[in-house]
Amino acid sequence: MRIATGKVVSGKVIIEGEPLEDGTTVTILARDSDETFELSPDDEAKLLASIAEAEQGETVSAISLVRDLDTR
């Protein structure tokens, strides 16, 4: 499983980075333009730290993530 980011251009989703293989099944989650959320200062700090880790390549596989969620 991969997470990809993209933008809609002329009605098509254009993926940033390495393209997905033809025939790949995808799920798209689109945020409404007026949709917002708020975080506590502690949660915001955790989110920013997690983003920094991901940008440095410190990630876990989707399988590991799901297994971890199943054990909670």
Please describe what this structure looks like.
- Strands 1-2 form a two-stranded antiparallel sheet.
- It has helices at 41-55, 62-70; strands at 6-9, 12-15.
- It has 2 helices and 2 strands; from the N terminus they run E-E-H-H.
Task: Provide keyphrases for this structure.
72 residues, 33% helix, 2 strands, two-stranded antiparallel ribbon
Total strands: 2
Separation, N- and C-terminal Cα atoms: 21 Å
Number of helices: 2
**3D shape:** extended
Low-pLDDT sequence parts: none
Q: Mean pLDDT score, rounded? A: 84
Class per helix and strand makeup? alpha+beta
TL;DR of this structure?
With 72 residues, the chain is of the alpha+beta class. It contains two helices and two strands.
Topology diagram in text:
Blueprint (H helix, E strand, L loop, with lengths): L5 E4 L2 E4 L25 H15 L6 H9 L2
Antiparallel strand pairs: 1-2
